[in-house]
Design goal:
The complex is a heterotrimer of chains A (314), B (374) and C (259). Chain A has eleven helices and no strands. With 314 residues, chain A is mostly helical. Chain A has one domain (21-308): Orthogonal Bundle (MetI-like fold), CATH 1.10.3720.10. Chain B is mostly helical and 374 residues long. The longest helix of chain B has 35 residues, at 91-125. Chain B folds into two domains: 37-126, no CATH class; 135-368, MetI-like (MetI-like fold), CATH 1.10.3720.10. Chain C has a single domain (5-254), classed as 3-Layer(aba) Sandwich (Rossmann fold), CATH 3.40.50.300. Chain C has ten helices and ten strands. Chain C has helices spanning 43-49, 80-86, 102-113, 119-132, 136-139, 152-165, 182-195, 208-214, 238-243, 248-254, and strands at 5-14, 17-27, 32-36, 60-68, 71-72, 87-90, 170-174, 200-204, 217-223, 230-237. In chain C, the strands form two sheets. Chain C has a six-stranded mixed sheet with strand order 6-7-8-3-9-10, sandwiched between helices. In chain C, strands 2-1-4-5 form a four-stranded antiparallel sheet, covered by helices on one side. In chain C, helix 3 runs parallel beside helix 6 (152-165) and helix 6 (152-165) runs parallel beside helix 7 (182-195). The radius of gyration of chain C is 18 Å and the shape is globular. Classes of the chains: A mainly alpha (314), B mainly alpha (374), C alpha/beta (259). Chains in contact: A-B, A-C, B-C. Chains A and C meet through helix 7 and helix 8 of A and helix 2, helix 3 and helix 6 of C. Bound molecules: adenosine-5'-triphosphate (ATP) and magnesium ion.
């Protein structure tokens, strides 16, 4: 303080004051974010505690918290995996189309169009799923049941309404497609021209060039993009809540009338009518969902951060 | 060959070559230079034929479903091209053509849902997309009539509140990350957790806000502000990410030029850096608003819904467009039609808002972006 | 195997921009042809149009003829993929595929064409190509290691091995030594000297001594003025170009009296 006052007055004092306030505000904003995140984990834990410590009979379903949550976790993972299986090849193909097949001039616009898929609110995907996808899925489900009925996924009596795990998987796939495509698109664009040209100069066709130069370069990004998509699918709520006709328990049949609900959808469906311990139970379920998505997202980031090590950029 | 002899005569003297190194084994096959290629009319013809067969199949065997039509055409065309190309051009070209068909099909396949969603929402939503819908609330309405006035007001209030919370925090955090952190500990931690925050499921954000407000309002409370807090958790990371990206695009020379003029740091940041990046930031914020304005799940558990207009976000339930649409669909009265019509009209309103915001965002970035040859 | 290339009145465009105009020259087989000239005069553009790599750039195209063995590369119906197998290319910066081993890099081009090749044949090919590129003794114990782990000069020789493994008729090199130290440069120059017994070689270089050392024929490209297309100003025996050039511009450029 004495040093400041020893300096000549004027020019320096006011800006310094401003500098400090501004730097403080910027740092403070960052700290708030950290507090919020700590708060998310902390408050959820706090509100979930009663359910963790309650005796099993009191928890909704009457068999305890674990029995309540694990079929939901199963449904969450099953729908998300279906979505991922559908969306991963599609997103790679679409990204390749935009980066390496479409005419340059319209490639950017095509990218925007795919991005628009992400802008549609999930409630609208839900309504669309019920009105358009579900009815359209019935003949497909019947076919699957007739011809692939020996698999556990395709039971003998497909749902007549089409509000099945399979349809939810398809709708989720559409919803996560834009994120995954965006990640793939970006990394495919970054493929060094040097390697693409090396391949072409060896007499590779376009597809051989992609296999030699583009895909190896983008592999880890494709994986991390898929994980980001998985994270989205795991947490998606309204589309699932609206489309799926659910039943308690674990159901492997993805085209039947009884489908395992997902954590997020169950919370949305039950929460408005719940009170007391039921609320705590749902929050505990939410906590489980939070940790599952956290793990998946962190894994995705880890893959991304590892990428730089073997990308071979020299 | 006489030709070769002629050339030999023309040829200037070439120095004698050293003895040749032993020749490596030649690869088994050698591509002829003049390849037979499939003429364009052949591929176009096959495409037209495939489409015709697919339409015929659709008309006679099963229904004319666009997805089925696309897939059938793609499969027929893919097989036809692959086979003919294998015969005429060889396997490698055939594979290349097949992949082109597959990749293009995938892209078209992705466009179908977008088109279908738009058609469905407009087709179902236009019936109640009228003046009453925008000027009446649902207070005392049973059956037909009524509207989403309360829900629109609620959505506007909650979105405005969310934006007011998220934008300053988001932008300041981005400023901290780009301008102040200098790769420090807090910066790294923050970057990581912003990434984590991006992945929080919206319903979990809602539950967090619920749990937080148990502290202030007791259990079971519903209010607009709780919803705003939930949405802020979703919006802040989006704002941070997009702003950060824009700030990093501002060239360092600009900052140094400003410092060299004796301008203080915070003025440099506000007057030079933020000013330069403002178009990008506005774009990012607009897209972030578009993202949260359609969020349903967090509002379902924090704000609930109500039939009358509530303009006070600090107490009581509020109607919002997405939740309104959801309840009209999920808990209709009898007859169902007026309720479902209102659900779709709300969906249409929502999608118009979202698409408009996306359009505005693109326009802002297109018009005001500094021309940096991107 | 080595083929003569006849270029007839070749114009090269980038979109509307005419980059190089009216090149006519005959490139001799089993010889090294060097292309020299100031920066931006279109040496790379011309070189890339000899194996149809030019058109890889969006909007780029050529007018005119390039005859290899009296067969026009730009005739309708000619597959650029086939052209590039016949006319191989080595780039300015070494570009081995980073995710592939040394072995896989060498056979990368061969694998494209002949899926089923006996392992022993493949091994022979790798050995012969690496020997041909003067790299065998240095890498024979680490063929399974990634190619990106080699030094710059070794990487460039690996790229040459990869190019000659597909047994092209012609090898094009665009400033192959510009990213290398003098020792690696000498190694590549020796290699070029060895290769010319089997291949037609065209090399772009900014290094006059290098052009004089390795080449039999030299072509000098120049820009008449900025904004004008580049042209082939003079094309003759290397000895003649460097001792007694026919054009004033060539003499100025070679003796360093050039803007
Ligand atoms: N991808 C491109 N798009 C448009 N113009 C280009 C492109 N590449 C090169 N040019 C232009 O074509 C002309 C010739 O370029 P080129 O790269 O062939 O020159 P060069 O002789 O190889 O120069 P250097 O010795 O610096 O490598 C230049 O005017 C250059 O600006
Ligand atoms: Mg060049």
């Amino acid at each position: 303080m004495s040093t400041t006052s020893a300096k000549p007055r004027g020019v320096h004092d006011a800006p310094r004051y401003g500098d400090r306030i501004f730097a403080g505000a910027a740092t403070g904003a960052g700290v708030i974010i950290l507090l919020v995140l700590a708060g998310v984990a902390g408050f959820l834990l706090w509100q979930a505690l009663p359910a963790l410590t309650a005796s099993p009979e009191d928890v909704r379903g009457g068999k305890g918290l674990f029995e309540y949550i694990y079929p939901l976790a199963f449904g969450t993972i099953l729908t998300s995996v279906i979505a991922l299986v559908i969306a991963t090849p599609l997103s790679v193909g679409i990204a390749l189309f935009i980066t390496h097949y479409a005419p340059r001039r319209i490639a950017l616009a095509l990218g925007y169009v795919v991005d628009l898929l992400a802008a549609v609110p999930s409630i609208i995907y839900g309504l669309w799923g019920v009105y358009v996808v579900a009815p359209a899925s019935v003949p497909v489900a019947t076919w699957l049941s007739n011809w692939l009925g020996f698999l556990p996924f395709f039971g003998p009596s497909p749902s007549a309404s089409g509000r099945t795990t399979l349809v939810v998987g398809v709708v989720l796939a559409i919803m996560i497609l834009p994120v995954m495509t965006a990640v793939n698109r970006e990394v495919f664009l970054q493929t060094p021209r040097l390697h693409e040209e090396a391949s072409l100069a060896l007499g590779a066709t376009r597809w051989e060039m992609i296999r030699q130069a583009v895909l190896p370069f983008g592999r880890s990004a494709v994986i991390s993009g898929a994980m980001l998509g998985l994270g989205r699918a795991l947490g998606e709520t309204m589309a699932v809540a609206i489309i799926l006709s659910t039943a308690v328990g674990v159901h492997w049949d993805i085209i039947g009338t009884a489908n395992s609900s997902t954590i997020a959808a169950d919370i949305a469906l039950q929460f408005p009518e719940s009170s007391g311990l039921d609320v705590n139970t749902l929050i505990a379920a939410g906590l489980v969902l939070f940790f599952i998505t956290l793990l998946v997202n962190m894994a995705a980031r880890w893959v991304v951060s590892r990428r730089s090590e073997f990308s071979g950029a020299n | 060959m006489p030709d070769a002899d002629l050339h030999a005569l023309d040829q200037p003297a070439v120095r004698p070559v050293p003895q040749p190194t032993p020749a490596a084994p030649r690869p088994p096959t050698d591509t002829p230079l003049l390849h037979r290629r499939l003429p364009r009319f052949a591929t176009l013809g096959m495409l037209a034929a495939s489409l015709a067969v697919a339409i015929l199949l659709g008309l006679t065997v099963w229904s004319l479903n666009p997805v089925a039509l696309l897939l059938e055409t793609a499969v027929l065309y893919g097989v036809a091209v692959f086979v003919t190309s294998s015969v005429v051009e060889g396997r490698r070209n055939a594979v290349d053509r097949l992949v082109t068909v597959v990749v293009t099909t995938f892209f078209l396949l992705a466009l179908l849902p977008l088109v279908s969603v738009l058609i469905e929402v407009v087709g179902q939503g236009y019936q109640r997309f009228d003046l009453t819908f925008f000027t009446y609330s649902m207070r005392g309405v049973v059956g037909a009539g009524g509207g989403a006035y309360a829900a629109i007001v609620g959505t506007l209030i909650i979105t405005a509140l969310t934006t007011a919370v998220s934008v300053p925090i988001g932008i300041l955090t981005a400023v901290y990350l780009v301008e102040y952190s200098k790769g420090g500990r807090l910066g790294k931690v923050l970057t990581f957790f912003v990434d984590v925050m991006t992945g929080i499921p919206s319903i979990v954000a809602g539950l967090f806000a619920v749990a937080l407000f148990v502290l202030f309002l007791g259990p079971g409370a519903r209010a607009g502000i709780i919803g705003s807090v939930a949405l802020s958790v979703l919006m802040i990371p989006v704002v941070v990410r997009s702003t950060e990206e824009m700030l990093r695009l501002v060239p360092n020379e600009l900052r140094e030029a400003s410092y060299a003029l004796g301008v203080s740091r915070w003025r440099t940041i506000t007057k030079v850096v933020l000013r330069t990046a403002v178009a990008g930031i506005v774009t990012g914020v607009t897209l972030a608003v578009a993202r949260i304005i359609g969020e349903t799940a967090p509002l379902l558990v924090t704000v609930g819904t109500t039939t009358s207009t509530n303009t006070n976000p600090f107490s009581g339930r509020m109607a919002t467009l997405p939740v309104f649409s959801y309840y009209e669909y999920a808990q209709p009265g009898i007859p169902r039609e007026p309720y479902l019509d209102r659900a779709w009209a709300a969906a249409l309103t929502l999608i118009i808002i979202v698409m408009a915001l996306n359009l505005i965002a693109r326009l802002v970035s297109r018009i005001f972006a500094p021309k940096t040859g991107r | 195997m080595a083929k003569r290339i006849d270029v007839k009145d070749l114009d090269m465009y980038y979109g509307d921009f005419l980059a190089v105009k009216g090149v006519t020259m005959t490139i001799e087989p089993r010889a090294v042809t060097a292309l020299i000239g100031p920066s931006g005069c279109g040496k790379s553009t011309f070189l890339r149009s000899l194996n149809r790599m030019h058109e890889v750039i969006p909007g780029a195209y050529v007018k005119g003829e390039v005859l290899v063995d009296d067969q026009n590369l730009y005739a309708p119906g000619v597959d650029p993929v086939g052209v590039r197998r016949r006319v191989g290319m080595v780039f300015q910066r070494p570009n081995p595929f980073p995710t592939m081993s040394i072995y896989d890099n060498v056979v990368a081009g061969v694998k494209l064409n002949s899926k089923r090749m006996k392992k022993s044949d493949m091994d022979d090919l790798v050995e012969a190509s690496l020997k041909g590129a003067n790299l065998w003794s240095e890498v024979k114990d680490r063929l399974a290691k990634p190619g990106s782990g080699l030094s710059g000069g070794q990487q460039q020789r690996l790229c040459i091995a990869r190019t000659i493994a597909v047994k092209p008729d012609v090898v094009l090199m665009d400033e192959p030594c510009s990213a290398l130290d003098p020792i690696s440069t000498l190694a590549i120059e020796d290699l070029i000297n060895d290769l010319k017994s089997e291949y037609t070689i065209v090399i772009v270089t900014h290094n006059m001594q290098q052009a004089a050392r390795v080449s039999d024929m030299t072509g000098f490209f120049n820009l008449e003025a900025t904004g004008q297309p580049g042209r082939l100003v003079e094309y003759d025996d290397t000895q003649k170009i460097f001792s007694n050039p026919g054009q004033k511009a060539t003499e100025d450029y070679i003796s360093g009296r050039f803007g």
